[in-house]
Amino acid sequence: ATPIAILVGTGRGAQLGVLITGPEALESAERIDTIVLDKTGTVTEGRMTVVAVTRVGDAATADIQHLIGSLEHASEHPLARALAGLTAEHAPVADFAGLAGRGVTGTVDGHAVFAGRAAFAAAQAGALPEAARAAVDRIEADGATAVVAGWDGRVRAVLAVADTVRDDSAETIGALRRLGLDVILLTGDNAGAARAAAHAVGIDRVIAGVLPEGKVDEIARLRAEGHRVAMVGDGVNDAAALATADLGIAMGGGTDAAMHASDIALAGHGIAPVVTAIRLSRRTMRVIR
Ligand code: ADP
Ligand code: MG
């Protein structure tokens, strides 16, 4: 039978924006010593804006905006929402495919369009043109995210996208530290953007540039070292890592995939309820013992 204290803790959690899926979640939460945070959409708002468009080759800017904006309109990644804004009128996308943490492809107006991280775009186009590589390096050194895009087997543009750190992130990360937890930022984004976000919120351990499988490996490695690990994430790319952690925590407003893989779902926006969850679990388990 489930101890009354856990039922009470679960009910209290729901009032405070911490939705707990089962009695084990509070027990796991009490024991964790390491908390791994996804970057995009978790520590940051995931509400991105396109800050620069660098043309590669001679495609017309209007075509770049129309084809890439239309393709990204079919994706639910936070980056995609910004890129969809490149155009007001979205053409339909046929054969849309998204490769989590890598990029997207689809047919727009008869063109085979792609957009994603540099390695993904290089695979689509056969190689990454020198001008594109230079643009990516410049954008990443500035702490933004570069999306390399094009169509019909050629890279045509590099887009710089910038995100904003959530209002409550720095304060929450400070509170997690005071609870005695090690905090790590884990992201599929580039090292420059990762370090800029980490610096803004006071995180000194950063693991960047990892694919979704790599996120799983990092969580598994920490657990193998004897840590008890909570992972907080929002994306399809986080789902497997959330399921691998001792405690998976899905962001409010995140994807269904992240929610289904998690033990706790946060209501509302921001990571502040993570602190509530840890405190609540400690109080609840103290009552039981
Ligand atoms: P995070 O781990 O910070 O949430 P992701 O793993 O979701 O980041 O994304 C990693 C990288 O994959 C992005 O920085 C981007 O380069 C690429 N990417 C993923 N989805 C898309 C998309 N819809 N359009 C363009 N690029 C994408
Ligand atoms: Mg994310």
From TrEMBL:
- Protein family: Belongs to the cation transport ATPase (P-type) (TC 3.A.3) family. Type IB subfamily.
Origin species, per record, is Microbacterium saccharophilum
Identify the domain of life: Bacteria
Protein name, per record: Cation-transporting P-type ATPase B
Location(s), subcellular: Cell membrane
